[in-house]
Design brief:
The protein is of the alpha/beta class. It contains 8 helices and 10 strands. The protein has an 8-stranded mixed β-sheet with strand order 2-1-10-9-8-7-6-3. Strands 4-5 form a two-stranded antiparallel sheet. It is globular and about 60 Å long.
Length: 202
């Protein structure tokens, strides 16, 4: 039996990637939709330069880096990116603009993950949809963090095909949640046409 909380393409699998976290911030922060600022400083973005610089990047293996850390070290990581050792994670308060500006083809990454620190809104669904439709990302798209079981079906509809289930939760139950509805009414990333276009009345 696999000892994993990872679902990929509707199967429970072992996770071959090493997650690289950001160091904890040193300042109290205030978070807003679409923007994060350091509360006691003047408009500095989060993560801070100190957090980015203090992030420890493993020297070998397949790693999932914070987008900001990758961008800071992009030149030094190019050889590993070519070896499919570099994946990215972004938080829901971040935008895709820096990634799209830096890379002509985001399909150089075999995996992009979206982190939900605490579920409060639907930004993870928007990010998944944008990555799949506007930016044509074709590889693995993972959701992790505060991802709830009753959201999995809708995450799948938004383009996600991988889910890191929280410790203590049953991944087999999560698999069932991906099949909550057999025939969704609306069109989305996974099934583009609404049901009234797919069905022909007899």
């Amino acid at each position: 039996m696999l000892n994993s909380q990872l679902i990929l393409n509707q199967s429970i699998v072992d996770d071959e990637w090493t997650f690289v976290p950001l160091p904890s911030g040193h300042e109290e922060i205030k978070k807003q939709a679409g923007k994060v600022v350091l509360f006691k400083l003047t408009g500095e973005s989060l993560p801070s330069e100190l957090q980015i610089n203090e992030t420890v990047i493993p020297q070998t293996g397949k790693i999932i880096l914070p987008l900001s850390v990758y961008l800071k070290n992009r030149d030094a990581l190019q050889h590993r990116a070519k070896n499919n050792e570099i994946a990215l994670w972004i938080a829901t308060h971040e935008t895709l603009d820096p990634l799209i500006s830096a890379e002509k083809d985001i399909n150089i990454f075999p995996l992009i993950a979206v982190f939900v620190e605490r579920f409060q809104d639907g930004r993870i669904f928007t990010l998944g949809n944008l990555l799949r439709t506007r930016h044509q990302f074709k590889n693995t798209l993972r959701a992790f963090g505060d991802v709830l079981q009753d959201q999995l079906f809708y995450l799948k509809r938004s383009g996600f095909d991988s889910y890191l289930i929280k410790e203590g939760k049953d991944p087999n139950e999560a698999l069932k949640a991906l099949q909550s509805f057999s025939d969704p009414y609306q069109g989305a990333v996974d099934i583009k046409e609404p049901v009234w276009k797919r069905k022909v009345r007899s």
